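Request: Have a read of the protein record below and say how the chain folds.
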Amino acid sequence: MEKPKIYYVQDALCGWCYGMSPVITRLFEEQEYTFEVLSGGMIRGNNVRPISGMAAYIKQAAPRLEEMTGVKLTETYHREILDKGTYMSNSEPPAVAMAILKEQFPERQVPLAAAIQQQHFVEGLDLNQVETYLPVVRAFGADEADFKQKFTDEKYLAKAREEFELVENWGINGFPAIVCQAGGKLYLVARGFQPYEQLSATLLQVRQEAQAAGK
């Protein structure tokens, strides 16, 4: 029987998606599902602005995020991103980076998304800058010159925006979200962060339901 597929809908700028990363990574490593990571487009268009307007809220939410998920927003992230406040929050550049790398490494989408978020939430780096992605490009064995050329190619911006549109058409406007495709049907199994035990139990239920329906 074909493996069920998980669509992991995330945004590189979403703290709760960063918190969800270890959960999705664990599922990915179990190899019971195929995965596609979709970029949600949380901040774009008229909402692109300096993070200073959101910094106080993020700082206030950080302890709960860390307690629930077990991840840490590093001192470097606080200092370089939140305290400086000049970072322009824009979901398009990391979605473009994901579109480029997904094309080259379709089987490694989950670790790619995690690596990009690490650059931001751990290293405190600017996801609008192509140089931020180069350590990820090198780590995955892609060509730096090729990546740089594609980062400004309208084709990959169009791919990113297609993902935003797909996510919108699914009615998903909060991140992270997990959609499971099993037995020819799509099931929305999570809106927002879920611990591994809860999510894996829901996914098992979906698989059993799909299997029963297919008999």
Summary: The two ends are 12 Å apart (CA to CA). Strands lie at 5-10, 34-39, 49-50, 88-89, 177-182, 185-191. The mean pLDDT is 96. Residues 11 and 40 are 5 Å apart (CA to CA).
